[in-house]
What we know:
The complex is a heterodimer of chains A (about 400) and B (about 475). Chain A is mainly α and about 400 residues long. Helices cover about 75% and strands about 0% of the residues of chain A. Chain A folds into three domains: about 75-165, Leucine-rich Repeat Variant (Alpha Horseshoe); about 170-290, Leucine-rich Repeat Variant, CATH 1.25.10; about 295-405, no CATH class. Chain A has helices at about 5-60, 60-65, 70-75, 75-95, 95-110, 110-120, 125-135, 145-150, 155-170, 170-185, 190-200, 210-215, 215-230, 235-240, 250-260, 265-275, 280-290, 300-305, 310-320, 325-335, 340-350, 355-365, 370-380, 395. Chain B is of the alpha/beta class and about 475 residues long. Chain B has a single domain (about 1-470), classed as Spore Coat Polysaccharide Biosynthesis Protein SpsA, Chain A (Alpha-Beta Complex). In chain B, about 50% of the residues lie in helices and about 15% in strands. Chain B is built from 16 helices and twelve strands. Chain B has a ten-stranded mixed β-sheet, sandwiched between helices. In chain B, strands 9-10 form a two-stranded antiparallel ribbon. In chain B, a hairpin with a 5-residue loop joins strand 4 and strand 5 (about 135-140). The longest helix of chain B has about 40 residues, at about 1-40. Chain B is globular, with a radius of gyration of 23 Å. The interface between A and B is large, with 55 and 49 residues.
Amino acid sequence: MGSIFEKLWRLGPAAFVFKAIIAAIVADGLLLAFIFVRRTYRKRFFAKRDKRVFELRQEWDALICGRMSYDRWRKKAFDRRIVEAMALDAFEAAGPEESARLLKFMRTSGLIEKRIFEAQHLKGWRRMRALVALGRTRAPEGVPALAEALRDRHLDIRLAALRGLGRTACPQAAEEILAWIGESGLTVPALPLQSALIQCSAERPQLLLPFVKQAEGPLREIMGRVLGEVATPALGLELLQFVGDEREELRAAAARAMSHTDAGMAFDALSELAEDRTWFVRLRAIIGIGNLADPRAIPTLLKGLTDSNRLVRLRAAEALVQFRAVMVPIFQQVIQLRDRYGLHAYLTAVENAGLRERLESQLQSSNVGEDEIRRLQEVLQTGSLPTEEPDPAEAVANQPESRL
Amino acid sequence: MIRLLEISNHALFWYYLATNLAYLAMLIIALKTSAQHQRRLESHRLSWLKDTPMTPPITIIAPAHNEEASIRIAIRNLLELDYPQLEIIVVNDGSRDRTLEELRDEFRLRAVRAVYVSEVKSAPVRGLYRSDVDSRLLVVDKEAGGSKADAVNAGLNAATSPYVCIVDSDSVLERDALLRIMVPILEDPKRVVAVGGIVRVLNGSEIEKGQLRRVRLPRKSIEAIQVIEYLRAFLIGREAWAQGNMLTIISGAFGLFRTDLVRAVGGYRARSIGEDMDVVARMHRHLREKKVDYEIRFVPDPMCWTEVPSDLRSLARQRARWQKGLLDVLWPNRDMLFRPRYGRIGCFALPYLWVFELFAPIMEIAGITTIILAASLGVLSREFFLQFMIFGYAFATVISIGSVLQEEVTYKRYNDWKDVVRLVSYCFFEHFPYRQLHMIWRLQGLWQYMRGDHEWKPLKRKGLASARAQ
């Protein structure tokens, strides 16, 4: 039996073309017919739907409170979908009171049970749709069904379940997620997992600690990042053990988390991390020190201004401008660093914070001497270091690539 | 001679058939992936993405050269975008009109001494300005660098976010475009290094306060035909190529890149003609050589609406430039061809571009010439020739209608029946004489490039203000 290419070749152009013309014309016709039939159908469908939405909207309060009999809309799939969609949309914008009312309605009308059943028994995109709907309700009774779907073999289903659990934002959901990653490891991309865990464990971050200690590899990094986001002062002592961790992600997480803890305890740890060999650990530490707003941090922040990484310099500068009462002495120290990049970072932060006028007025009223005031004003005006002394940063400035 | 003509005609027949079959395969892949994308979107609520603390910051870089007519609307549109952490950098690339003044008046700019480290090369920067109206807006005023690439590089130097989104300052993004384009990155930030969004034709649509109010098909035929071309290129071509991680272009009008990677490849090549394709090609090369597991994705729903040329002269210049840009990218990267080191890009995507894109106008000219020769020598079967033309015409319309179908079943932006009827009718009328003109423009582009004309020339545009702005 010859291959398809041999057959095509034997047909030759002349024999092939006639058949191809017929096929192409038929395809043209079918495509056009599909477009026009679909348009007509959709036009009618949406007209009918809009009309029904309007009718139900008129009776929305009665419907939600249960004054309208559920049988009036539950038995018709068309109506049921509309009501559910309207209720779920209302959830997105509802405050706590309205959410509770909507949730009660979803429960008593049986819509949640129906979605739980679908999430447990359907397959493919129908299951995914049920999971998304459950997530949107934030109903705690949906957690087991969502957790079950975490074990689905399709990634999209697992992601939908994960996002749904994240939306519930309850520790029970966090426990389910942690149990699942304990069983099967990292089977979803990192970001959705981090987001879901952050949302669920914000209330009880201590849930994460045993898992952070046990986890290995990329999972440990992810857990570290989550911990960094949700850490509270109560975790202070627990977090100290990660300051010397071999994984840079975890050290960064510790730095991030320490800024939420007691300032007395965090200060030394953050100062140590501000000198870490990895730039993003230093960045996190500098941001953390900035959050502490402790004047003892000024020397560390000044050092951060001369960091080889641009983001670290920018964040150090942003932290320094927070000390508004002592802007002039800080400005003097920034100039003494003799680092053009550090000076620019500081001036940028001053400009961005809208503090330039304040610095100018503090300069006017300061008692550092007229010559010094003039010198500082000149630096402020020109953005350049004073010229009387040699500029050690100049050599580096000619090779900007080295200062990322 | 007659034998030679027969061989040539046969070769051209198979070339033409291969082109059409490639398009048919792409149409089928695109229809399938669009359906999958729509289903996958159901597991996302865009508002959920916005709420998560893990959504990374983005810097939008909008180069502007003599854009006084549209700059206000365009930047207002960018500031209205729905995204939690945003920085917008407008690069005034030595405009000789009132672009900077327009920005200054509208957004109350004040000079700042922000950190500007020239990490990638660009023409000297004259000043940096931050807006008092919205502190997320930074304007980089620089000397003219002669290309969009140079302006983008200046923006890259000032960018502070891990991702940069390059847009044209005469384009309009849909409000949720950034959230949508971030979806692949949020799913897999380690592998996804760049994402392209879809670019659609703005002409004829209505804009209100920087937002697209109503999508309409342009009235002029030359603009409406470009709507079909854009649908075909994006909804079929890019969708299908991206499926195999073989996307070789992310439109300069709307693309998202990892900042460190763009910097690592040296930014945009200032002298490149097709800077958007060039940077993607260099990314592929860089990542393949470093043996990095990566993906460059295309997402068909974050939409960017851009103004297309509305007169033949501008269109001819644009298409000639695109063809020059193609050659300008393919020639320096010819060493990637058929080398296993460069994977599918070297073995499949680049050869396809050489054979079916770069040589397409040459093959068409060769086809017409041999047909004329064969007819004059009496060796052309008129019946066969007619059949072949009908087949070519009918098949090309299948692909065009297929792209309209894609738009219909997925995004459905043309709501008016009249617009759809007109759009479908242009699928039948675009093949003559537009297609032949297009071929001539592309040949002109090749000729200009080979003569040494490698200049990046800006096009004449009406500006967003003329897009029935309210």
